[in-house]
Amino acid sequence: MIKIITAAQMQGLDRRTISEAHIPATTLMERAGSGVVSCLEHRLGPVRGKAVTVVCGKGNNGGDGFVAARLLRRRHANVRVLVMAPTSELSRDAATMYKQFVRGGGKSSVYLYTSKAQTQALLRDSEILVDALLGTGLSSAVTGRYAETIDCINETGRPVVAVDLPSGLHADTGRIMGRAVRASLTVTFGLPKLGLYQNNGIDLAGEAAIVNIGIPPAYIDAVESRTTLITGREVRTYLPGRQPSSHKGTFGHAGIIAGSVGKTGAAAMAARAALRVGAGLVSVAIPASVNDILEAKLLEAMTVPMPETKARTFARTALDRLTAFMAARTAVAIGPGLSTHPETVELVQALAKQLDRPAVLDADALNALTGRTALLASCKTPPIITPHPGEMARLEADATPQTVNSDRIGTASRFARERGLFVVLKGARTVVARPDGAVAICPTGNPGMGTAGTGDVLTGMMVGLLAQGVPSWEAACAATYLHGTAGDLAAARMGQAGMIAGDVIEEIPYALRQIYQASSNTPNTIWNDPV
To answer: Beta 207-211 vs 227-229: how paired, if at all?
Structure first.
C-alpha cells in the first residue's frame, strides 16, 4: 500500500531530498512537470494541435506548470500560459522554469493576468486546462484574482488537469478554502495527499495519478503515516493461488445468514457475490417460508431453511441450529435483509456472542447491535463490520451521518480501535480500519454503485474471501477494492445511470482477471480511477 500524507510531511520529504540527497529542486520540478504531461496524454490523448492553457501561480506549483507548458509545446500543442503575478514576484525556482519556457520560444504565448474578462476569453478558447495555481501550502481562503480565475476555470466545462492538488483544496482536510478547482484529473507527486480522499476532495480531484519524482525510498519509509491507499498490486498479493489440484473444498465454505419476506434478494446477491469471488461452496440460512423463493433465485448455492416468526423473519428459536450452521462453515456473514423484527434482533445479539470464526456483520445485523456494541468485544474472532454512514452513526454514541462523513477516517479508526474489530465504512472512498487504528482508503468505485444491493454484494465478496483463508484485514481491503473495480468496469460498459447491483456481480470475475494480469502501470506512475 502507498502512504497517504499531509502537506507538512510532503514538504519535509522535499527538503530532505534537496538537502540530503542533493537532488536540486529544479530537478524535482522537471520530473513533476514531465509527469503532468505524461498523465495528461494518457488520460486525454495526444496533445498535438490542441489548444492547452496552463494557468500558473507565482509559487513552485506554478513552476511545475511552466515545465508542463514547455513539454506540451515540445509535443506540438498550441500552448498558452496565463501567469497570475508579475514575473518579478515568481519564486526562485518558478522563475527559472519560466525563463526556460521563454527561451524555448514561448514568450509570445505568455499572458499576464489583467482581468476576469481576459481570463474568460483565454480559457473559453482552450480545449484542455492545466491548473498550476496553488499547491499544498495553501492555508487561507482564496480571494481576489485567484478566486476569479478558479471561477473561470470551473465555468468553462473543459477538462482540467490539476497539478499536485486542485487549487483551493486544503491538502490535509479536503475542504474548500473559499474557492476550489473542479479537476478531471489530479496528478500528485511523490505520495498522495490526505485531502484528495476526504470531504470536498472526493468530488474535486477527479481521477488521480501518483507520479514518482525520485524521492529516495528510505525517506518515504521514514515517514510515519497510519493512512494508506489500497492498490491493485497489493490486492494481488492478498488473493489465494489456484493450484491445478484444487477442488471446491480447497476454496472454503461460506455461510450466509440473511433474508426475510420481501428481502430474499439481499441473500441471493450476497451468495452470488461470494461464489463469483471464488468461494468453493456457499450455503445460505434463510427463514423457512421463503426458502423456496431463494432456491428459485440461486442455482449454485445451497439453502438451509430455519425456524421463523409469524412475520417470516428468523425466530429466536433458530439459535441452536444457526450456531451449528456457523460451526460447519469456514467463514460467515450475517445481516443482509434480516429485518429489525424484535425477535430477530434478539437472535442476532445472541449469535454475536457465538462468533468464533472469521465473520462479516452488515446491514440489519448492525442495526440489531445499536446500543449493544459491547457485544462485539465478546466475539472470539474480531469480526468485520461494514456500515454505511447512517449505520455507523447508529453504532456511535451522539453521532449523525453528517458528523461521520465529516471525519470518515477518524470515525472508522477510532471505532475499530475501541471495539477491537475491523471497520469498512462504506461510501465514496470507502475507509477500511483495523484494531490497531491503521486505516486504508479505497480509490475504486463510482456513483453508479449508489443503488440498492451493492452493499450486499460487498458482504458476499468479503465472506467469500474469508472462506478461502484470506485474513480479515486483507479480505476487507481486497474485497473493497475489487468491489469498486467491478463497479468501475460495469460503469465503463454501460454508464453509471441505471446500474444495478447485479451488474457489479457480473463484473467480479473480470475485476479479478484485471488484478491477476500484469499491471499496466508504468514504474513511475500509479493510477486510480475514482470516477
So the answer is: unpaired
The domain covering 2-225 belongs, at the CATH homologous superfamily level, to YjeF N-terminal domain (3.40.50.10260)
Per residue in 148-205, pLDDT (tens digit) is 999 999 999 999 999 999 999 999 999 999 999 999 999 999 999 999 999 999 999 9
Residue at grid coordinates 513511475: 524
Q: d(Cα 128, Cα 159) in Å, to the nearest integer?
A: 5
Residue 461 carries which side chain, given as an amino acid letter? M
Phi first, then psi, for residue 184 (nearest 5°) are -85, -30
Question: Where are the chain's structural domains?
Answer: 2-225, 234-238+252-528
- The pTM is what? 0.94
CATH code given to domain 234-238+252-528: 3.40.1190.20
- How many whole angstroms separate alpha carbon 359 and alpha carbon 255? 9
Nine-digit cell string for 187: 496528478
Question: For residue range 340-349, what is the model confidence (pLDDT) as tens digits?
Answer: 999 999 999 9
* Phi, psi for residue 10 in degrees, rounded to 5: -65, -40
Closest CA to 82 of 16, 153, 13, 143: 153
SS3 of 16-71: the string is: HHHHCCCCCHHHHHHHHHHHHHHHHHHHHCCCCCCEEEEEECCCHHHHHHHHHHHH
